[in-house]
Amino acid sequence: MRFRQAFQQIANRRVVAYIRVSSEDQATSGVSLDAQAARIAAYATAMGWDLAEVVRDAGSSAKSLKRPGMKRILDGVRGGEIGRVIALKLDRLTRSTRDLADLLETFAKCDAALVSVSESLDTSSAAGRMVTNMLGVVAQWEREAIAERTAAALSHKRDTGAVYGPVAFGYRREGDALIPNVDEQAALRQAIRMDREGASFRAIAAMLTERGSKPHRGKAWYASSVRAMLRSRIAPKAAA
User: Fold this and answer.
1) What is the pLDDT of residues 173-218, one digit of tens each?
2) What is the CB-side half-sphere exposure of residue 206 using CA atoms within 13 A?
3) Which domain holds residue 41?
């Protein structure tokens, strides 16, 4: 009886589509947004749902739910105006397992349904809610695993002296290897000594300028560039 009442409440409220892109270029061209809207509209037609509105978040990240379009969705769900929200994929809604759980809880409390076209999910059923949760957990695991592998690869490159980004002060690049630059290493060691003795970054910048040392990026030394150099993971470790 409870499920039948909830289903009836969903059917009597508005069906809206939610689409999002994170890239500013995509937001400007609108290609991805239009493609999402078209697929959702076709899905709604096939399901016999009257699509009342398309809510857009252009150029918005899915790292949090603090987006104008998402706020509009949540206000409509909580206010009893929206009964079903259709997205092309779950990652259009959020990339956070915690935020996905919060969304599912909000929709459940308000007797609203969350639908994903690509994953063929509809949270108006218990099975749909379970699978949605599972997919969210798997997606977050994949992101965290990629981050761990990337961090391990960068750590290995640092330990072996391989180039993996902008060449740090104190080194030059030969192929994929970092080779110590004798003059810059001497200046770097002096900068590290001054830093350990309590000299300001501005004073160290003045010393480097006086020595004729030039930063690899920018035309002159500033307190900010000195700080970045001394707090990097490569330069101080190798020159100390």
Assistant:
1) 776 677 788 888 888 889 999 998 999 999 999 999 999 888 887 7
2) 6
3) 2-144
